[in-house]
Description:
By secondary structure, the chain is α/β, with parallel strands linked by helices. It is 36% helix and 24% strand.
Amino acid sequence: MLSAVCIGETMAMLTPDQPVPLHQATSLHFGVGGAESNVAMGLAAMGLESHWVGRVGRDGFGTRILDELRGHGVGVTGVEVDPQLPTGLYVKVPAQESDTDGGSSVLYYRQGSAASAMGPATLANPAVARLLEHAALIHLSGITAALSEGCRELTEAILAAPRQGRLISFDVNWRAALWAGQDRSVLRRLANLADVVLVGKDEAEHAFGTTDEAELRRLLPDPSVLVVKNEAASAIALLRDGSREEVAALSVDVLEPVGAGDSFAAGYLSGRRFGLDQKASLRRGHVAAACTLTVHGDRGPLPDAGELAAILDSTDAQWAAIHVSGGNFSTRKRSVAP
């Protein structure tokens, strides 16, 4: 089975049980969240042997994270448990019905976390070294690079290493709060070392100063493909040879957008590792993202294998007619099924 390794920070996540301001909440829901572990769980759901590498504290939050990942079929043998530093934490405040212009917001408590202590020495961990040696795919993100100098050095060491048949992907995952006061040009240098770069069109403006496709490829000439997620409109693969593939996004009744980008990454990257072409891989990404957009939380359940195959094999006209609501894929007349 193809093996994937995702490296980064996963945090405990708290959010009010009711859609009320944080100061009015009387109880908080306890979950976990992290871009790279979201991708790891998505890749496992897509049929790849998947592992997460990171660091957690020796606390209940860290234990919950490890249990959650194991429960989703993700290997955690490469995770280090820090006896002193705590697991990172974030609080997700839901959008308020009384504020139609305001979306959900996030408060981070990750400075000095166990994960921020990752560095090149992490690669000397025998369990991590074995996972990376046998991986067909290694997935990184710009979030990790912003956590600390050691995390940035770790990210660069992996990106600069000989490939030996491996594919290394880098999701920009722009987080303004993390890059405040830091040199954002680091993101361009790291991204240009990857084989596959994923970036939202809105993120590209902040990270690279442009959303123009030609300019983005000029700034990032070395990756074999740059995937631009054009919000709710489409996803575009810009290949190094100058070719271009664009696939329209599915029509979706959006419940919550959090996690959709990670789901897209898992869908697209799994397609590439299974040998699918750009169009099929982009479609796979859209399907995974649509499933997450229609649920609360960072991941939505995928269609069964037969329905997924029928969706991916649909004609362009059939694809354009698909609508997703509550995790169900349908056209005006019927469900999409084999």
